[in-house]
Every structure is written in C-alpha cells, then in structure tokens.
Amino acid sequence: MSTPVIADKNVSTPAAQTPSSPVRPVKTTSKTMLAGFDLGTNKSCILAGPAGSNDLALSKVLPTVVGYVKEGIVDGIIAGNATILFGEEALNNMLHVDLIAPIAEGVIAHPAATRDFFQRIRSLIDPTGLAEIRIVVGIPANTSDKAREDIRQCSLGIFDRILLVPEPFLSALGFRDDTRIGQNGYVDPVTNSLFIDIGGGTSDLCRVQGCFPSREDQICIPFAGDAIDEILHNELNRLYPNNGLSRHKVREIKEAHAYVGPVRKPIDVRVIMGGKAHMLELGEALGRAANTLIEKIYPALTTLIARASSDSVTTLLQNIIVTGGGSQIKGIDAVLQKRLTDDGFESPKVKLAGLDYKRYVAIGALKAARAARENQWQYLLT
Amino acid sequence: MTPATAEEEFLQALTSVRATYGITSIDEDALKEIVATEGNRVADAFVIAELIASRLAAQQPATISISATPKTSISKPPPSAPTTFPTGNSSSPLSIADFIDGMLSQEKRDVHQPAHP
Cβ contacts (< 8 Å) between B84 and chain A: which residues? Predict the structure, then answer.
C-alpha cells in the first residue's frame, strides 16, 4: 500500500502547483468510515467513526494550512524529514516551509494544496488506507456550482462517497439536542431558528424552519474573521508604524480581545517588537475593526427575518444563534439583540452557541453522514 | 456556575497571582497552551456525549423523561411557547434523511440558476 503523500519526497512544490497524485490502495476489507468535515477557511474540524456504530474514532480541529518544506532544509530539522506539513505542525515550522492556505473565503483557492490537505484528512480518518470513506462536507451557504465541483474534483481518489451540505444548516443539526426533541419547552433548532455562522472567510446566515433551507433562506457574506484581521492590521500599522507584527499575531490579538459595541478603553496588549516587549493600547482599533462586521451582518439578518412568514417570525426571533469563531467576539449577541430591539422587532433573543462552536458543523455533518440513505450518497466519478 | 462567572473567577485568580508574585510569574504562552489543551478536552468530551446521547435516548422507554446532560458551556434557549408554525408533517421528530432529500431535490431544481460565488 502506498503511503500518503506527506512522506513522499517527490511531491509537488507550491511553485510548480502540479496536482498531487491520488493514492488509491486496493481495499481488501469491507470497513466503511463515516466522517463529518467542517472545511473552514482558517480552521477545519473532522469527526469520524465506523459506519453502523456511534463510536468516535477521530475528533480533531486543525488549521486549514499546508506547509511545503523549503529546498535546502537540513535533515533532521523537520520531524521525519517530511516534505509536507499540515495544520499546527506547518505553523510551528513556518520558518522552514512555504505556507499555503488551500481555502479562501470558503472556497478552494489552491487545488493542489487542497488535495494534499484532503489526503491528510483521509489518513487521519483511516490510517490503514483500506476503508471506504463516506464524508459529509460543510460548505458556505449558496456555494456556486463551480465551487462545489472544485471540492468534488479535489476529493477524487481520496474519498469514496460525498455529500456537500451548507454549514449553517449543519450547525443547526449539530446544535440540536437529540435527547430533548419532543420535550416540553424545547424548541428544536431545525424547526424554527436562524443561525449566524461567522467563520474566517465567510459569514453565513441561514433560516431553518422545518425543511431544508432554500437559496432565499440563506445569505453568504464574504466578510468575516479574515477581513477583521486585515482592518485591524491596517489600524495597527497606522497607529504603530513598523510594528512588524505578522498577520498571524494580529489574529491572535483579535481572538483574545475583539469586541463590538461602544469603545472600550484601555485594552493594553503586550507584544514583542524587535525583540523587546511593548504594551500597545488597542481599544479603539479593536472596536473599530470588529464593529464593521456588525454593519455587514445586520442587514442580512433583518432581510432573512423579513422573509419569514408572520406565523413563524415571533418564534424565529427568539431563536437567533451565533456560532463559528465570530461568536467569540465579546458582546456580539448583546449588540445584535439591542439593534433588533431598537428597530422594533418583537422580543428578539440572540444566543451564542458556546465554547463548542468549533465542532457544531462537524457534529451536524457526522449526524448527516450517519442518517444518510444509501441512495443519497454521491459518487465521485473519474 | 455560568460561563461568564467562570471566566470572571479565572481572570480574578490570574490577577491575584500576578499581584502576589509579580506580573511575570505566569508565562503567557504556557497559560495559553494549558487553556487550549483543556478546552480541547472539554470539547472532545462534549462531542462524545452528544453522539452517544441519541443511543442512550433510543434505549430508554418513551415514557421516561430523560434529563439532558447539563451543557454548562452552551447558553440554551429559554423555555418558550410551543411554536404554532406548521412543519407540514406529523409531530414526530424531523428526519435528517428527509432534509437531505429536500436538499438534493433543490440542487436539481437550482442547477441552472445563478448562484452566489
């Protein structure tokens, strides 16, 4: 059986951008693995387990990044002398690799790197390489046909069967408490709720009301965590020229301190610049950057609310849930709720998905994988 | 203990340690690593609980009311009036496979419509 591409010294380099060869070992077992895959712009989450079982063989969150080891790196610097690194390992060795982000704004930007990333995912799901892999992949709301086809093309020879499902709907499935369905007082989120999934590349809003959401029930905004990073980076460069802070460091600052609403000062952040520690006051910059997200999301939110029927809208307003990395922005629930109240909407309630937001899409995807009928799985045709 | 209270207590504890032993007494990177590791452990436990909950629910008789595992990390919706919004089906729980059927039907209908890139 061929080993995955990561151990192959003759793998393509980012400059060449040649597609990596699919590794298709001969399957000698009838084992099937089901997987739920949240393919995020910045972070991905994969959950997997054997078909016909509730066992969980894999639960992993990893940065969506591929690192191709640079030419001339001395043997032993990279563990196992690997030529491709993934996720945290790639980031930890960023000085020695060319980092590639396969996904941009929720869609595939680098097909070769995406295939390598998918190979890695496959090897995590099934280290033997012998199992049939059926995978449900989360995609942004209203993804184009071309973007969907790009995912299928990158999956050829790697996964065996596939289903592409919008992420906010999977969030609703993942957030759903199966033990409480039918209980008094419990509102099933797939019955009547509005999910706001704020990721790295896109912010996806989706109304789920008892049936699979149509295009009109979903809005995808190509403005999310990465866009906030860029605004914050520009603000930092304006306030503190020559600060030398990387985009990665700026993202760390954002994840630790971002907030929305009225300006909060002072917010002092300790950074190392030129080898020396400095305290930067970033209250206004952080608020200005994150508040732009509210200005993008709020119109889409009110648009979806306006499309709801009068019978359903009151309950819908009570079940607005913010998930994804953006749900960690301090005050985002309160600010959205206040804006809705101030605009006259009836008793809105905006809630946060909680600290487990990273896994809801993948949980929903795995639930979908376990529930899918045989004839619903799509083949990947060469 | 609510998540907000837990976070406040954590921050107060950090402030107290720094005030007592100095601002450099806690290594930021080590702290971040610990928080991330523990966060992952809690999240993994939550995922496992979520996935076996349905199995446990299926094993219980229908008349027994199953108290949900408390999810202290999630702000659950407050009890609200039962929705009168018609689901179009019986009162039985919505089937995920039916949702998938709906999605696949939509894909066939939308194949010629312009989509958001």
Answer: 311
